[in-house]
Amino acid sequence: MKQFALLLITLCTITISSCRKDLGTKCKSYNRVNITNLIGTDAFHLDSTYTNAAGEAYNAYMLKYYISHMKLVNENGERVELYAHELIDQAVPSSLELGDVIIPDGHYTSLEFNLGVDSLHNHSGDQAGDLDPMYGMIWTWNTGYIFFKHEGYFTSSTSGTEQPLIYHYGTDRALVPISLPIELHADRSASVINLQFDLNKLYSNPNTIAFTGNNNHQSISTSDIPWINTLRANFPNAFSASAFVFLQE
Amino acid sequence: MKKIIVAFIFIAPLLFVACDKGEDEIPAATPYTLVIPEGLPPMNIPSNNPLTVEGIALGKRLFYDPILSANNTQSCASCHLQDFGFTDPNQFSTGIDGIAGTRNAMPLINLGWQTKFFWDGGANGLESQVMGPITNPIEMHETMANVVAKLNATAEYPDLFKAAFGIAEVSSQNIMRAIAQFERTLISGNSKYDQYMRGEALLTAQELNGKALFEDMEKGDCVHCHSMGSTFSDFEFRNTGLDSIPVDEGRYMITLNASDKGKFKTPSLRNVELTAPFMHDGRFQTLLECVQHYNTGFRYSANLDPNLSFAVKGRMTQQEMEDLVAFMKTLTDMEFVNNPEFH
Hints:
The complex is a heterodimer. Chain A has 3 helices and 15 strands. Chain A has helices at residues 2-21, 199-202, 225-238, and strands at residues 28-39, 42-43, 50-51, 57-58, 62-74, 79-89, 101-104, 106-115, 138-139, 144-155, 162-170, 176-186, 189-198, 216-217, 239-248. In chain A, the strands form 3 sheets. In chain A, strands 5, 6, 8, 9, 10, 11, 12 and 14 form an 8-stranded mixed sheet that branches. The mean pLDDT of chain A is 91. Chain B is mostly helical. Chain B folds into 2 domains: 28-187, Cytochrome c-like domain (Cytochrome Bc1 Complex, Chain D, domain 2, Orthogonal Bundle), CATH 1.10.760.10; 192-337, Cytochrome Bc1 Complex, Chain D, domain 2 (Orthogonal Bundle), CATH 1.10.760. Chain B has helices at residues 2-18, 53-63, 126-129, 131-135, 144-152, 157-165, 172-184, 192-197, 205-215, 252-255, 287-297, 306-309, 318-329, 334-338, and strands spanning 116-117, 123-124, 237-238, 264-265. In chain B, the strands form 2 sheets. A two-stranded antiparallel ribbon of chain B has the order 1-2. A two-stranded antiparallel sheet of chain B has the order 3-4. Chain B is globular and about 60 Å long. Chain B starts with a helix and ends in a 5-residue tail after the last helix. The model of chain B is unreliable at 1-23 (pLDDT under 50). Chains A and B meet through helix 1 and strand 6 of A and helix 1, strand 2, helix 4, helix 5 and helix 7 of B.
């Protein structure tokens, strides 16, 4: 993967300069997306203890989610798709680096994506790449992807004991379209977009979620629907993005 | 993954110039022509998983191989036995940890004409269905990732996957596709009933009377759901009044629509003589008990299928019920049960 990135940067430079020579062709840039899971301003770590807005101590031994159809939108509203389906797994560092993609030069003003898997792809396990059922992010008795999985422990505010937390968020109604403002002038350049996901914000902004008595949701029964609606409302606020040009020819 | 592909498209032309050594062409798998018996409709085969001789052979091998279960003791065939129309003669099948499920195993017959699988239709497609039993903790209790790793580590399987799909590396997608290919070949269409329809055999007076009752709106009215014309099911989800308050909520668990409570997939009646016990929970041992249920036993509830809520209880005599059973037995296809291609 590392060599690959290097190779790409070299290739970038080659095409960027060749594009200069050949003024008739449309010029292109390169962009990559890096994802960081956060708690407030600190990097998130598996198995570390955090405190949510409801005042409960909690951790996660597993934090995974799907991002689909990530697109850059330019000032004219034109979209370029960067990635189809990406599984972000905190335990797999390479999954947080979404790699270089060629984009047309332009002034990009927002980043769009879905948290989850779109309904066209959500109902079959016969898929490869990041949608491979091997990653355990699919319900097999009711074919559909688990969009977001947080498993860990928390301290109950009533009993004071440590209890399991199982959040498996999904089904078509749970898909969250997200659009974030960015400022990117791609001009024969190589850039990076840092996409940040704050787990504590997911559980607090705007709706505060307390885990006590609310610690097992697998999107399977009608009683999970209010929980799905709450998370769906919070997800857009848990993400933020910023873009940097790091190579300009 | 996608990023590599995108990048590759870009550097591909460069690479091809650099290394045009020409990999050995992988021989394409041999296309397999499915023979559909007269009377059955054409089958929709997904264009991304065409049937091939090598794919079907691999699927069959996987179906019978206990390597798909966590402790390598149970195969698909442990619960789907050919002698019983590929179902389990036990009311509830027992998984590798000795835990029994709560539903009766389903026969695997003419699956290629269906689009939703399991009693509640939770699996969308024959390929996707394959993950279910493998990963179900009370069945084979394995993970797809482990199955892929175990198969990759064997001496034979990578070659078999290469022959079938052109890639030696075993993937969950190709495991699902191979088994689905094999399942599509499990076609039954040569029962006495089929031979009668083709003018090759005669039905007895009792069987003919049963057939008439099966179609008679005032009597059996079975045809409404177990549609004639070959598949003997419309594969819709119906509440047949087994309980007024269903223990197993069936289709509701998938759709969460209250009107789906207690609805289950209408099973095909082909080979039904061999697939006892009956219904999603295997509550009936005999076909006569099933007919008695439709005649007098069904229970009322808001979700009871209209075909039954308007039916008069006790509309069939004992003799008529027995005639219906005699007709259902004409759907037994011994050629299917003994087909050497299937084991």
